[in-house]
Every structure is written in structure tokens, then in C-alpha cells.
Specification:
alpha/beta; 3-stranded antiparallel β-sheet; 10 helices; about 30% helix
Length: about 325
């Protein structure tokens, strides 16, 4: 049995063990809740090849059972795209994290696995009404540490800082993360449910890192996350630059990582004609794209620049 198969079997076994616990209710073949309206819904495998989220949830569930079945807060768990996980692919037909709130007139040819799964997840969230959602992801390229992704809203930035002060907080414009479709996080926001993403590491299982993330999540102060105390000194970053490929075939220089500091006019890449692609601003690199991902994207990555609440208030 491969580790892929073993981790999914472990989740199924743990799910069965929770069936006899007070408060248990199934919400999906691959999900359950321990309360009618849980404090936190943990989601994983929105992208099938971002596997550490499942490993983290298995450790979290094991720890909860070993703690005399007394979770430190009420929670629910949901695996979002198991068919893609089974194939170790990001998705089957279309990125699930661009498939939420799909238009009613979506052509039939585009209504694949993720289209229908997104609708199921929307129904689950609407019925469950969790107080907060934490969506576990991984990056394609290496990252210097875990980091948060969330819309630029003061309350969400504060919530992230409560979860972990050491992890960088990366925000994006609340109008939307991608032109290709809505994310789970954005759907939740439309339902007035606060949600954020934790980008844990580069794709792949990592037991030591998964244990560390599990400990971080298990001992969360849920009330402080859901209603975070006001602060004025929280620093974060905002995605301000999209590194558009103005010329097909442009490529990044090798070796860029998530959260890597860059300076304005640093050489980031090169065009097919040999011309250099310069960094447009000081900041940190987010989601650098190489290989097939770079070939199918119109962007080479993103640059996030430092922000604070004074700037946010000045813009509002």
C-alpha cells in the first residue's frame, strides 16, 4: 500500500471511530462534524496533489481521540477532491478552487467532476454554517515557511496573526483572487463565513512538518480567531504585482521560492529573444511558475509588497 492509499485509509478508519462520539454527524462521504455549527471547519485536498493537509487532519483526529475525545473547540473536517487525490493530480477536469459559484449558464462541456463537487461543498457549508474555515494547501515550488493567504480585510489579518505570529500573511484584493473563477475561501466570504488558507509547504508528505502544523491547529484559541482582539501593529503583505507574460515563451530564472525577497529591477526571467524580465517592485515572490504550470499560465508569478492597517484605512 502506498502512502497515498494509507493516509486515505487512515482517514476512513478515524472517521468510523468518531461515529460513536457525542455530537458526531456525517456531512459527506469524506467529512463529518462534531457539532451542528462547529467553531472551525478544516478543509483539505481542494487540490488533489496537495497531500499534507490530509496528513495533518489524520494527526489532528488521532490527537483528539487520545485526548479523551474532548476537542479544544468544536470542529468539522472535509476532504474536498478525493478523485484528484487518488490520481495525485491537482484536479480532474478544472481547478476546484476556481469552480465555486459557477454561472448557471456554464456550458455542459465544462460541467465536469469539479463543477459538481463545488456545488456539493457549497451546500455542505451553507447547511453547516461553521464559524470559521481553515483551508489547508501546499505550494508547487518550495516555500521558506508556511504562510497565510486571505483577502485584505483587517479582521482576517488579525485572525491569521492569532493562529501563528511567525507565518507571513499574504493578502489579495477582496474583489477576487483569480479571473478564472471563485475559490472556496471567496465562496465562504460571500456566505459571511470568515475563511483563510494556510500554504503549508511544497507538495508532498512530511511527517515532522505535519506534526508541527497539527500542534499549531490543535491548541488554537478558537474564540480569539473568530473574534480577534484589535491591534494596530500587525504587518502583512499584499499582492500588488502580477508578473504577466507579455511574450509567449518567457521563463523565470531558475530557483525562485515562495516568500523569497526580491528588489525592484532584479532580473526575474528572460524572453525567447533573450531580453531580461525585471522585477517591478520591492517585495516577496509568491507562486513562482515553472514547467507545465508556466506554460499554461499567463503569469510567471506574483509579487507581494509590505502593508499595514494605516495604509488599508487610507485606501478605504
Amino acid at each position: 500500500m502506498t502512502q497515498h492509499e494509507a493516509e486515505l485509509e487512515k482517514f476512513k478508519t478515524l472517521h468510523n471511530r468518531f461515529r460513536v462520539q457525542p455530537g458526531y454527524k456525517s456531512i459527506d462521504h469524506h467529512g463529518f462534524t462534531m457539532s451542528e455549527n462547529p467553531d472551525i471547519l478544516f478543509t483539505a485536498l481542494v487540490h488533489g496533489n496537495e497531500v499534507i493537509g490530509l496528513q495533518v487532519l489524520n494527526l489532528f483526529l488521532e490527537k483528539t481521540l487520545k485526548s479523551n475525545h474532548k476537542a479544544p473547540y468544536t470542529f468539522a473536517v472535509l476532504l474536498c477532491n478525493v478523485p484528484a487525490y487518488d490520481k495525485n493530480q491537482r484536479f480532474i477536469n478544472k481547478d476546484l478552487n476556481r469552480s465555486f459559484q459557477a454561472p448557471i449558464d456554464t456550458p455542459k462541456i465544462e460541467k465536469g467532476q469539479e463543477y459538481y463537487r463545488a456545488q456539493q461543498i457549497e451546500d455542505i457549508i451553507q447547511n453547516l454554517q461553521p464559524r470559521f474555515i481553515i483551508d489547508l494547501h501546499q505550494t508547487t515550488e518550495p516555500t521558506l515557511s508556511p504562510f497565510f493567504m486571505l483577502p485584505e480585510e483587517e479582521s482576517l489579518v488579525l485572525s491569521a496573526s492569532v493562529i501563528c505570529k511567525e507565518w507571513p500573511i499574504i493578502t489579495f484584493d477582496p474583489s477576487g483572487f483569480s479571473k478564472d473563477g471563485k475559490t472556496l475561501m471567496e465562496f465562504a466570504r460571500g456566505e459571511n463565513i470568515p475563511a483563510l488558507v494556510i500554504e503549508i509547504s511544497q507538495n508532498g508528505f512530511d511527517l515532522n512538518l505535519a506534526k508541527s502544523i497539527c500542534e499549531q491547529l490543535f491548541y488554537l484559541n478558537a474564540e480569539a480567531i473568530i473574534t480577534p482582539p484589535k491591534k494596530d501593529d500587525v504587518s502583512y503583505f499584499k499582492i500588488t504585482q502580477h508578473l504577466t507574460k507579455f511574450i509567449v515563451g518567457s521563463e523565470l530564472m531558475p530557483g525562485f521560492q515562495n516568500l523569497q525577497p526580491v528588489k525592484e529591477n532584479d532580473i526575474l526571467g528572460i524572453t525567447p529573444a533573450g531580453n531580461e524580465y525585471f522585477c517591478p517592485a520591492d517585495g516577496i515572490f509568491i507562486f513562482p511558475k515553472y514547467g507545465h504550470q508556466a506554460e499554461v499560465s499567463t503569469e510567471l508569478g506574483l509579487i507581494a509588497t509590505p502593508r499595514n492597517f494605516l495604509q488599508l484605512k487610507a485606501d478605504s
